[in-house]
Amino acid sequence: MELTRVDDQVHLVTGTNVNWALISDGSALTLVDAGYPNDSAALLASIAAIGHRPEDVVAILLTHAHLDHMGGVPTMTRRFGTPVLTGAEEARHARREYLEQITPARMLRQCTRPAGLRWVAATVRAVVPHLKMSLDEVTAVEPHVPLDVPGGLVAVPTPGHTRGHTAYLMPAAGVLFSGDTLVTGHPLSRLGTGAQRLPSVFNESEAGVTAAVASLRDLPADTLAPGHGELVRAPLATLVDRALNR
Ligand SMILES: [Zn+2]
Ligand 1: distance of its center to the CA of 5 in Å? Predict the structure, then answer.
């Protein structure tokens, strides 16, 4: 677990090739995403590392219902009853009314190169035995308005990676939590680091991702806290242009 301080209120945490974020407002916390199922201990450690208790988390905002982002949710909901929120469409995905996720066959195909093999091994370790996880109690958020959660985050619908993918903007801090719409690296990326779209094998709709990235261009943010890769401080328009030109 690696902790990156964004500002007094915001920390980005890296678990197994994936990030989550902690946003504090006094004693209360918002958690954006929750890592893989087997990142749960690291998730709890990250909360302790910034001087908080798990009970301080009053809301979990999910960008999307993939196992690398929702895996730590049951640890929080079962033990602390933490409410889980995401976009209305993604709430259906979290309940597994349908599944949009890389298939085991497509995962296996990654093993033909060393980086892919390493990624598959790390992913299996981070997931097993929780492959069939679903979330029952997920509340749909209203998009484009400040939510009543610490940090006053705003849900930004960004369909593409999944149909209901939702990014979150923290206007007061100028931070965008972009989930898997706009990232700055991934073990399977052939682009290295810097703003980019995820490899297409992960995306439900490539055209959707491209449109969603473009739609972020004018948001008032100069810090990107992505679902994968490092924190980047640069105007969002610059990052969007960079990602769309690769
Ligand atoms: Zn992801």
Answer: 21
Domain that includes residue 114, residue range: 2-128+137-244
Question: Ligand 1 mean position to 179 CA, how many Å?
Answer: 7
Per the rule left: phi > 0, alpha: psi between -120 and 50, beta: everything else, 30 is: beta
Number of domains in the chain: 1
Q: What angle do CA 208, 233, 90 make, to 5 degrees?
A: 30
Report pLDDT for 14: 98
> What is the 35 CA–ligand 1 centroid distance (Å)?
9
Nearest to 119 by CA among 196, 18, 205, 200: 18
How close is the Cα of 235 to the center of ligand 1, in Å?
23
pTM for the whole structure: 0.96
Q: How far is the CA of 94 from the centre of ligand 1 (A)?
A: 14
Three-state SS at 118: helix
Distance 50 CA to ligand 1 centre (A): 24
Cα→Cα distances 209→15, 66, 94, 204, Å: 24, 16, 19, 8
- Quick: pLDDT tens for 26-72: 999 999 999 999 999 999 999 999 999 999 999 999 999 999 999 99
User: Residue 183 sits in a domain of what CATH number?
Assistant: 3.60.15.10
